């Protein structure tokens, strides 16, 4: 569910949230409460060598 979307030149800004209804997700507590996640739980870091490291709950991407 997308709650807000602000178009802008280059990168637009949006905020969304979702709930995971599975039984196994009930043990997960996000920033918005049990089983709730949002788009900003991901973050990116630029490493010293210039690589970009992106992390989100439960997954790692490089």
Q: Radius of gyration from the CA trace? A: 14 Å
Outline the biggest β-sheet.
Answer: 3 strands, antiparallel
Provide a count of the helices: 0
Q: Give start-end ranges of low-pLDDT stretches.
A: none
Distance between the termini: 26 Å
The amount of beta strand, in percent, is over 45%
Which strands sit side by side, in order, in the main sheet? 1-2-5
What level of helicity do the residues show? under 10%
Shape: flat
Please indicate the count of domains: 1
Number of DSSP-assigned strands = 8
Average pLDDT confidence is: 78
Structural class: mainly beta
Polypeptide structure, described:
By secondary structure, this protein is an all-beta fold. It has one domain. It has no helices and 8 strands. The chain has strands at 2-6, 13-19, 29-30, 33-34, 36-38, 43-46, 52-56, 59-61. The strands form 3 sheets. The protein has a 3-stranded antiparallel β-sheet with strand order 1-2-5, with no helix packed on it. Strands 6-7-8 form a 3-stranded antiparallel β-sheet, with no helix packed on it. Strand 3 and strand 4 (33-34) form a beta hairpin.
């Amino acid at each position: 569910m997308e709650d807000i979307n602000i178009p802008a030149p280059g990168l637009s800004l949006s905020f969304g949230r979702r709930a995971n209804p599975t039984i196994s997700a009930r043990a997960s507590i996000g920033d918005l409460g049990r089983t709730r996640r949002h788009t900003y739980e991901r973050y990116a870091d630029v490493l010293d060598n210039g690589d970009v490291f992106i992390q989100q709950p439960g997954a790692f991407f490089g």
